[in-house]
Amino acid sequence: MSSQNVYILGIESSCDDTSAAILCNDQVLSNVVASQKIHEQYGGVVPELASRAHQQNIVPVIDQAIKQAGITKSDLSAIAFTRGPGLMGSLLVGTSFAKSLALSLDIPLIDVNHMQAHILAHFIDEDEYDKPEFPFLALTISGGHTQIVKVNNHFDMEIIGETIDDAVGEAFDKSAKILGLPYPGGPLVDKYAQSGDPKAFPFTKPRVDGLNFSFSGFKTAVLYFIQKQLKENPQFIEENLYDVCASIQYTIINILIDKLKKASKETGIKSIAIGGGVSANSGIRKALKDGEFKYGWKTFVPKFEYTTDNAAMIGIVGYLKYLQQDFTDMSIVAKARIKF
After folding, report:
1. Which helix (H) or strand (E) segment is 68 a member of?
2. Which of 195, 205, 288, 292 is buried most deeply by CB count within 10 Å?
3. pTM for this model (two decimals)
4. 117/14 Cα distance (integer angstroms)
5. Which residues have C-beta within 8 Å of that of residue 63, sequence separation ≥ 6?
6. pLDDT at residue 124 is higher than 80
7. Where are the alpha helices (DSSP H) in 194-235?
8. Is residue 331 within a helix (H) or strand (E), and if so which, with residue range?
9. Per-residue pLDDT at 142
10. Domains, the chain, ordered by start
């Protein structure tokens, strides 16, 4: 092993995916994710069940990540883990394991902010993917977060807009639930939207000051609309599913793009990067690409596997912090709510 190579083990356990990755410098050698199917029957993530599943998954997932990377534990330079934000029980499993392993191997421990990691996933070295130059705007969109972040450098980030109530991922999933689709419904809305007319059913966009978002009113509007239509025609959802999904998706994307346009205009920044689970949505990806022609943006969309919760993004933050010798000590505790 050459002395200049840094091997980081990344551990991610903020919600319902247990993930471990090995990075050699800024390159991913392995990225293993164990998803939890148990939550589907409950229509959402059950925190107690999630933390129990993490306890079952964490050892095999880390073992697999190390084997797939073709290294041994003794090659590791440091361990990076998600400190927060996330579900407390889930975070505790990853935090405790990372601390124990770092202690036993006598190597540095690095704490990572989950939301920063979604943004810094863009700095994983991938041949066909460019890395954004500073400063850039990051739109982080997931089941729990919707934020516009001004990124001045790797660790100088400023939230300039965020949701005042629900996250965009929740708006997708709750709309899907209203339509009787199984959990998680967001990907199904995206799938059906591709065969529908996005302008079939106009939904009003919420008026929110500045660069902030609001999705609670939108969810209520979808609920009332569907209830009204079902009274008139009990077969309404079956007969119009594709058009309804397309209209929901079209409205949500417009809300996001409108705020991004405003943020770009106010800051003068035309480099736009997206991250978080909802950035896997095909409509959002297309709208961003269209923005290159319409508004002169340069857009950055991460590799599909780095959009949802994964440990490679934790590993890249670990590597960047390792270069700065920015380590934490064993007194570190997980935090369910954490700011940049």
Report:
1. helix 47-69
2. 288
3. 0.91
4. 12
5. none
6. yes
7. 216-232
8. none
9. 86
10. 7-122+307-323 (3.30.420.40), 132-301 (3.30.420.40)
Supply 13's token pair: 């356990």
Residue 168 dihedral angles phi and psi, to the nearest 5°:
-65, -35
| Spatial separation of the C-alpha atoms in residues 31 and 26, rounded to whole Å | 13
Quick check: 215 pLDDT over 70? yes
Residues 6+ apart with CB under 8 A from 106: none
Helix axes 216-232, 168-178, angle to 10 degrees: 10
Per-residue pLDDT tens digits for 79-98: 999 999 999 999 999 999 99
What are the beta bridge partners of residue 172? none
Task: Write down the residue that tokens 């660790």 correspond to.
Answer: 155
| 41 has pLDDT over 70 | no
**Secondary structure class of 283 (helix, strand, coil):** helix
Closest CA relative to residue 284, chosen from 259, 306, 253, 252: 253
Q: What are phi and psi of 249, to 5 degrees?
A: -65, -40
Tell me how crowded residue 135 is: count the other CB atoms within 10 A of its CB. Answer: 16
Closest CA to 329 of 11, 13, 99: 99
- CA pair distance 309, 94, nearest whole angstrom: 13
How, if at all, do strands 7-12 and 17-24 pair?
Answer: antiparallel
Residue type at position 103? L
CA 242 to chain centre: 26
